[in-house]
């Protein structure tokens, strides 16, 4: 299998590539293991918790936690692990996580597929209703609860900040 972490970050000047690891609706987190060239179980989620959208990473990036930059892909479809989507970044939730006394940034990029007609009007994550952003924050807290990670949300920002972050973390 192709090492999906080595694909280019950018499809063109406006769109990134996003690799789906965990499809919408899954109750366990999957991660691509480049050494195995396969997807492996990272962790089960708490009972009743599922991914609200496709979750994955932006290839050829490296975040502070050592992993590729995380991306949540907002669209109505459910895909499969390994699917590569051309997406337009629409924002970022800047996050500081603390585990075993060590703090590090672990930001989440938000994107919409360029071929998803239902989301073409969504240009900025901050345009989501506040309760939808609150729900996403609660989801992120819940997915980290079993790992004793403490999350501090530093703020929601639009597509310009997301693009700058992706470019800064691209390898």
Automatic annotation (TrEMBL):
Residue ranges the record marks as coiled coil: none
Example of a GO cellular component annotation carried by this entry: cytoplasm
Entry EC number(s): 3.6.1.1
Key word Hydrolase present: yes
Cofactor names: Mg(2+)
GO biological process, one term: phosphate-containing compound metabolic process
Membrane-spanning intervals of the chain: none
One Pfam short name: Pyrophosphatase
Highest taxon above the source species: Bacteria
UniProt KW keywords: Hydrolase, Magnesium, Metal-binding
GO molecular function list: inorganic diphosphate phosphatase activity; magnesium ion binding
Protein name stated in the entry: inorganic diphosphatase
Gene source species: Bradyrhizobium rifense
Biological classification of the source: Bacteria, Pseudomonadati, Pseudomonadota, Alphaproteobacteria, Hyphomicrobiales
């Amino acid at each position: 299998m192709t090492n999906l972490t080595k694909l280019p970050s950018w499809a063109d000047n406006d769109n990134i590539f996003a690799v789906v690891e965990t499809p919408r609706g899954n109750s366990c987190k999957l991660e691509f293991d480049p050494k195995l060239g396969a997807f492996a179980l990272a962790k089960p989620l708490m009972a009743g918790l599922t991914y609200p959208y496709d979750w994955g990473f932006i290839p050829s990036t490296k975040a502070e936690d050592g992993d590729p930059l995380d991306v949540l892909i907002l669209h109505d479809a459910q895909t499969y692990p390994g699917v590569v989507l051309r997406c337009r970044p629409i924002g970022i939730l800047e996050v500081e996580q603390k585990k075993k006394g060590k703090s590090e940034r672990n930001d989440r990029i938000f994107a919409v597929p360029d071929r998803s007609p239902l989301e073409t009007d969504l240009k900025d994550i901050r345009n989501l209703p506040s309760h939808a952003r609150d729900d996403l924050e609660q989801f992120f807290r819940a997915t980290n609860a079993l790992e004793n990670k403490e999350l501090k949300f530093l703020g929601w920002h639009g597509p310009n900040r997301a693009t700058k972050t992706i470019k800064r973390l691209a390898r």
